[in-house]
Amino acid sequence: MTVKPDWLRVKAPQWQRVGRVKEILRDLALNTVCEEASCPNIGECFHAGTATFLIMGPACTRACPYCDIDFEKKPKPLDPTEPARLAQAVRRMQLNHVVITSVNRDDLPDGGASQFVRCIEEIRTSWPQTTIEVLIPDLCGNWEALELILQAGPEVLNHNTETVPRLYRRVRPQGNYDRTLELLRRSRQMQPQTYTKSGIMVGLGETDAEIRQVMRDLRAVDCDILTVGQYLQPSPKHLPVDKFIHPEQFAAWKAFAEELGFLQVVCSPLTRSSYRAEQVRELMQRYPRSTKPQRTINY
């Protein structure tokens, strides 16, 4: 694998704090995308007492060549105790903001929407002061399932775009760019007060013009929050890194995205989908859901 540049090096975490979070997760038999997907920010997030919970896994029904989560055509049945255990972890960690994501469960009629709903409901009962972000798969275009999740009332609905349309067949072969945009568009229509969010990986061979067009497309469906981060190859069997993008380019993309009207942009080499996701609470103070601004899409 290609040697990483200096700007992708991370500080060693304080393992005492990390160990406490790991202890809670192991005690409650929970998975996190931080561990399953080999996230480079695991030390920072665990030290801060935050984690992105991975439900319905750890095996995924899709085998995206960039992702380090295990693939399984026939994953295990859903665990009915998982939502309550997740809520207990949120309470024990006293999280102000929690992110819930999942593997793809294309084997389920609703893509796992009902499990997302149960997790949200359990957290609301157990630790109601936390804000909730769900990072969901595309549900194979099941819009009734999407509506079920939105009706449960998460503050943020996140669905990643991942890459530019030209690279979808190679990077996200079972995904569909237009379906991703449609999911975000429908989310805005179904629950206008819910913040919508999406993320892009860079360094896979895309051009600057293609990245900027994806940003325009996301604003065209009124996406509120954008994350942009460097793709890192988890192992030799995964897609190689085409290029390590310099931080100056990330700064230029961030400025462009803000000009387009995104309410919040997290854009840096180490950014991941839920990196510093708790910052949405600051956004909610500036733009309460009942008074979210009607924004012009600035092309």
Outline of the structure:
By secondary structure, this protein is an alpha/beta fold.
Any overview of this molecule?
With 299 residues, the chain is of the alpha/beta class. The protein has one domain: Aldolase class I (TIM Barrel). Helices cover 37% and strands 13% of the residues. Strands 1-2-3-4-5-6-7-8 form an eight-stranded mixed sheet, with helices on both faces. β4, α6 and β5 form a beta-alpha-beta unit. α4 crosses α5. The longest helix is centred in the middle third of the chain and has 14 residues. The relative contact order is 0.13. The mean pLDDT is 88.
Helix/strand layout:
Layout: H1 15-27, E1 31-32, H2 33-36, H3 42-47, E2 52-55, H4 82-93, E3 97-102, H5 113-126, E4 131-135, H6 143-151, E5 156-158, H7 168-171, H8 177-190, E6 195-202, H9 208-220, E7 225-230, H10 247-260, E8 264-267, H11 280-286
Parallel strand pairs: 2-3, 3-4, 4-5, 5-6, 6-7, 7-8
Antiparallel strand pairs: 1-2
List keywords for this structure.
single chain; 299 residues; alpha/beta; TIM Barrel; eight-stranded mixed β-sheet; 11 helices; 8 strands; globular
User: Averaged pLDDT, please?
Assistant: 88
Structure annotation, total helices: 11
* Count of strand segments: 8
So what's the overall shape? globular
Can you summarize the main beta sheet?
A: 8 strands, mixed
List the helices and strands in order.
HEHHEHEHEHEHHEHEHEH
Helix content: 25-40%
Distance between the termini: 38 Å
- Which CATH-level-2 architecture? Alpha-Beta Barrel
SS class: alpha/beta
CATH superfamily: Aldolase class I
* Low-confidence residue ranges: none
